[in-house]
């Protein structure tokens, strides 16, 4: 692994048919046994867990990293295409040896595979993964160019797909009943009148559909796949939303909490889905949106 990849931590015949059938049944039963271990920890905690989060050098991803650390995660790895900024470095200083950065371009399969392998090389294991990296662009549907559409789908859909399938393969290889959580959006449920973007909503609808299908396919391995649909969250990309002159009118239409949420307010849902307490929770989406987008 190049040093730049990681920070300083771096049947047979009829006579045997009954026997074969019995062996097959035992094997299938073992494969499908996804019950929690007898020493299952029913406390909602991430104690001892190694979690990777894409796009965690800033914004929602960094806030999720902070909440996971506050809930006793052993290690958090940010897989991000951007170099860490001041906010990341400040959080890292507060949690020495627990918060790490790995360079990763989620739109490239090779980069994703290398980043996940770097996490496993550093800690020998990975328990949870948040496919959070994404982007949005708010403008009328008739104004989008093909280049803009490609950017949105490459990052929000293909990037999420590459990450989920790559980490699922590692879970299976390592025999880990891991958890994958996608960041979807309230716009996968209904239009966002405050800041419309038809392509963005389409990408997040795709993410929610992947959640259900992957959860079905990988349940036999004990791998859980869920998603979170945030509402209006205050980040560098959305700071302008509540400054619009008609913000109050739009909130009357939504009927929800008339404010932008702090990104850390999303964290509890992610912690639950990553924890052993959610061992029978898979294939669902949790809207964390102050009711916006849920109905």
Calculate the mean pLDDT score and round it. Answer: 84
Query: What percent of the residues sit in helical stretches (DSSP H or I)?
Result: 40-55%
| Secondary-structure arrangement, i.e. CATH architecture | 3-Layer(aba) Sandwich
Q: How would the global form be characterised?
A: globular
| Name of the CATH superfamily | NAD(P)-binding Rossmann-like Domain
CATH class: Alpha Beta
Write the layout of secondary structure elements.
Elements: H1 17-32, E1 50-54, H2 59-70, E2 75-80, H3 86-94, E3 99-103, H4 109-123, E4 128-131, H5 146-174, E5 179-183, H6 198-218, E6 224-230, H7 247-254, H8 267-274, E7 285-288
Parallel strand pairs: 1-2, 1-4, 2-3, 4-5, 5-6, 6-7
Helix pairs in contact: 2-8, 4-5, 5-6
Family: Belongs to the short-chain dehydrogenases/reductases (SDR) family.
GO molecular function, one term: oxidoreductase activity, acting on NAD(P)H, oxygen as acceptor
Keywords: NADP, Oxidoreductase
Structure report:
The chain is of the alpha/beta class and about 300 residues long. It has one domain: NAD(P)-binding Rossmann-like Domain (Rossmann fold, 3-Layer(aba) Sandwich). It contains 8 helices and 7 strands. The chain has helices at about 15-30, 60-70, 85-95, 110-125, 145-175, 200-220, 245-255, 265-275; strands at about 50-55, 75-80, 100-105, 130, 180-185, 225-230, 285-290. It has a 7-stranded parallel sheet, with helices on both faces. Helix 4 runs parallel beside helix 5. The longest helix is centred in the middle third of the chain and has 29 residues, at about 145-175. The N and C termini lie far apart (about 45 Å). Mean pLDDT is about 85; it is low at about 1-5 and about 5-30.
């Amino acid at each position: 692994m190049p040093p730049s990849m990681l920070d300083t931590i771096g049947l047979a015949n009829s006579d045997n048919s009954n026997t074969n059938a019995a062996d097959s049944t035992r094997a299938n039963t073992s494969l499908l046994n996804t019950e929690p271990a007898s020493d299952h920890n029913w406390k909602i905690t991430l104690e001892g867990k190694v979690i990777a989060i894409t796009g965690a050098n800033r914004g929602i991803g960094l806030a999720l990293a902070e909440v996971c650390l506050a809930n006793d995660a052993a290690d958090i790895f940010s897989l991000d295409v951007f170099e860490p900024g001041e906010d990341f470095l400040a959080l890292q200083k507060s949690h020495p040896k627990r918060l790490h950065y790995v360079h990763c371009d989620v739109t490239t399969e090779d980069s994703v595979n290398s980043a996940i392998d770097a996490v496993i090389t550093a800690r020998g294991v990975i328990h949870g993964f948040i496919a959070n990296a994404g982007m949005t662009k708010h403008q009328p549907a008739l104004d989008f160019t093909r280049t803009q559409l490609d950017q949105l789908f490459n990052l929000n859909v293909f990037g999420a797909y590459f990450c989920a399938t790559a980490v699922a393969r590692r879970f299976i290889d390592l025999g880990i009943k891991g958890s994958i959580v996608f960041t979807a959006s309230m716009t996968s449920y209904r239009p966002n009148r405050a800041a419309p973007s038809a392509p963005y909503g389409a990408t997040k609808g795709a993410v929610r559909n992947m959640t259900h299908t992957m959860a079905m396919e990988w349940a036999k391995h004990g791998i859980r796949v869920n998603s979170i649909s945030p509402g209006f969250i205050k980040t560098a990309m959305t700071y302008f939303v509540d400054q619009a002159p008609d913000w109050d009118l739009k909130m009357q239409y939504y009927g929800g909490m008339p404010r932008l949420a702090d990104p850390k307010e999303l964290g509890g849902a992610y912690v639950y889905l990553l924890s052993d307490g959610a061992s029978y929770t898979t294939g669902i989406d949790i809207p964390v949106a102050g009711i916006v987008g849920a109905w």
